[in-house]
Write a structure and sequence with these properties.
There is one protein chain. The chain is globular. A hairpin with a 4-residue loop joins strand 3 and strand 4. Helix 2 packs across helix 7 and helix 4 crosses helix 7. It contains ten helices and four strands. Strands 1-2-4-3 form a four-stranded mixed sheet, with helices on both faces. The protein is mainly alpha-helical and 276 residues long. It starts with 5 loop residues before the first strand and ends in a 23-residue tail after the last helix. It has a domain of 169 residues.
Length: 276
């Protein structure tokens, strides 16, 4: 675990099935994801741009934890991901996720937009949703295949090249309107199942749209937010409200963990009293 990264959960990666092209692609993308995240952490450490403020990083971890707990129920691709999250001291609102659950967000997202916890969760859920739909993995594999007709027998070289493709992809505008709508729908479901009010996504993306930051890798550059997208979000929220209400009911009905017993302090002795 990287010292500057905040681990949300740790689970072993699912083994790739030998001889399966899809499984081999998934294993290569997972390996490349680790390379990309390691490079990003190293780059930020060298530039001294990793946020080590416990308030910002701790809040992001707390907000993201319920999403991690429900991600595999919403998208089976998340099974076996190694989740981690770091905060970069970039003032521009930014959030990206890799196809193994590793995430990078910016100080500007945590602080500048004045997002509530639910709104911050909505942005994280959307970044995760693009990976749950397999958007970036598919695009990275397609770009790799355009360069090579088949797999590279040198696994290290293949992982390095895939990492170069994936690293550029996640910070470049490449999602079309259909991909954004699908990710929005999945993000709303993830929020609802996590017990986070999905309506927060509407206000969160309105704040992103109002920020006016349109340069990559800022949120608005990677995820255009025209008025019709906000309208679609509002319509989609109503569809997942029953899931949200069920999550709240399940949480209320769940047995509360036992409170640790307080140790009884021995009675105070009056120093003036003679010892027996």
């Amino acid at each position: 675990m990287f010292a500057a990264a905040i681990a949300l959960a740790q689970t072993p990666e699912a083994p790739a099935e030998e001889g399966s092209g899809a499984a081999a692609d998934a294993a290569l993308v997972a390996r490349a994801s680790r390379v990309v995240y390691t490079r990003e952490l190293a780059r930020n450490r060298a530039a001294e741009t990793l946020d080590t403020d416990r308030g910002a990083v701790g809040r992001a971890r707390r907000v993201g934890t319920p999403l991690v707990a429900r991600a595999s129920a919403v998208g089976p691709l998340a099974t076996g991901w190694s989740w981690s999250l770091s905060v970069e001291t970039r003032d521009e609102p930014m959030a990206w996720s890799l196809p193994n659950g590793s995430m990078m967000i910016s100080w500007g997202l945590v602080r500048r937009l004045s997002l509530s916890d639910a709104e911050l969760a909505a942005i994280l859920a959307h970044a995760i949703a693009h990976q749950l739909t397999g958007d970036d993995a598919r695009d990275a594999v397609a770009a790799y295949r355009r360069r090579h007709g088949g797999p590279d027998p040198d696994g290290n070289r293949a992982a390095a090249e895939m990492a170069d493709i994936l690293g550029k992809l996640i910070v470049s505008p490449h999602y079309d309107a259909a991909a954004e709508k699908a990710a929005d729908a999945l993000a709303l479901e993830l929020l609802a199942r996590s017990g986070v009010d999905p309506a927060a996504a509407v206000s969160a993306w309105r704040k992103v749209a109002a920020s006016g930051s349109t340069s990559a890798p800022g949120l608005l550059a990677l995820h255009p937010t025209p008025p019709e997208r906000i309208a679609n979000l509002e319509a989609q929220v109503a569809q997942v409200m029953p899931l949200y209400e069920k999550a709240l009911a399940d949480a209320a009905a769940a047995p509360k963990p036992p409170q640790p017993e307080k140790k009884k302090s021995p009675p105070r002795r009056n120093p003036r009293q003679p010892q027996p």
